[in-house]
């Protein structure tokens, strides 16, 4: 009997040791860290740096409606087409590329008032500035300056300018209000004389009151 008691105690000790070993212990499952892709989808597509500015990846911009990075950017412009992906345009002819060719036009050096539309050229008028004449060339419309002095009625000297002309008068004369005719400049308005001033065409003359005579400088009175 003592031998059997020892064997029973030994078996019980073995079972207790097995149950208390690491093989029988159960650990709770460790939570996996959220991946960057999951975080990116949570705050919006095409986001590279969440929380810092717009955070949009290169080639994308924020959509005004959703506030997410869903609008593609085309650096070279799509002209009459539309931007469907970063630097990828869908053109009116159905072709795709980094940009769309401009439609054939007659825009020349000055011939068109141009309206920029996403990098494209839109012709809105075929006129030349005032003072220029328009001529059709192989490269479109070209505007050349008109020499108004060929027909301008200046009383003095006519000077042609780009897009217009000016009239000039000689010494002692000035332009009238019509900017074409000349009139005498009244130098006496600048009071060059000490006592009296008499204006003349293109010049003036000083004189003195009784009891004074004109100085040698022809302006002062002694």
UniProtKB/TrEMBL annotation:
Domain EGF-like: 145-183, 184-218
Signal peptide limits: 1-24
Biological process annotations from GO: cellular response to virus
InterPro entries: EGF (IPR000742), EGF-like_Ca-bd_dom (IPR001881), EGF-type_Asp/Asn_hydroxyl_site (IPR000152), EGF_Ca-bd_CS (IPR018097), Growth_fac_rcpt_cys_sf (IPR009030), NOTCH1_EGF-like (IPR049883), vWF_C/EGF_Fibrillin (IPR052080)
GO cellular component, one term: extracellular region
Molecular functions (GO terms): calcium ion binding
Domain of life: Eukaryota
Subcellular location(s) of the protein: Secreted
Cited SMART domains: EGF, EGF_CA
Chief site of localization: secreted
Keyword annotations from UniProtKB, A to Z: Disulfide bond, EGF-like domain, Glycoprotein, Repeat, Secreted, Signal
Protein name (Swiss-Prot/TrEMBL): VWCE protein
Designated gene of the protein: Vwce_1
């Amino acid at each position: 009997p003592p031998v059997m008691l020892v064997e029973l105690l030994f078996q019980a000790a073995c079972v207790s040791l097995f149950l208390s070993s690491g093989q029988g212990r159960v650990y709770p499952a460790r939570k996996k860290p959220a991946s960057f892709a999951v975080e990116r989808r949570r705050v919006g597509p095409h986001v590279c740096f969440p929380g810092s500015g717009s955070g949009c990846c290169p080639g994308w911009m924020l959509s005004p409606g959703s506030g997410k990075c869903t609008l593609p950017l085309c650096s070279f412009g799509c002209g009459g087409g539309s931007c469907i992906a970063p630097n990828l345009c869908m053109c009116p002819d159905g072709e795709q590329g980094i940009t769309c060719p401009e439609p054939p036009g007659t825009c020349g050096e000055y011939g068109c008032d141009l309206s920029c539309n996403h990098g494209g050229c839109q012709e809105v008028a075929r006129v030349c500035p005032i003072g220029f004449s328009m001529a059709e060339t192989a490269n479109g419309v070209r505007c050349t300056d008109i020499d108004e002095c060929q027909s301008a009625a200046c009383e003095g000297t006519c000077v042609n300018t780009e897009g217009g002309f000016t009239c000039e008068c000689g010494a002692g004369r000035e332009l009238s209000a019509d900017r074409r005719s000349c009139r005498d400049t009244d130098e006496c308005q600048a009071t060059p004389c000490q006592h009296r001033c008499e204006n003349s065409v293109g010049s003036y003359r000083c004189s003195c009151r009784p009891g004074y005579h004109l100085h040698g400088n022809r302006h002062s009175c002694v």
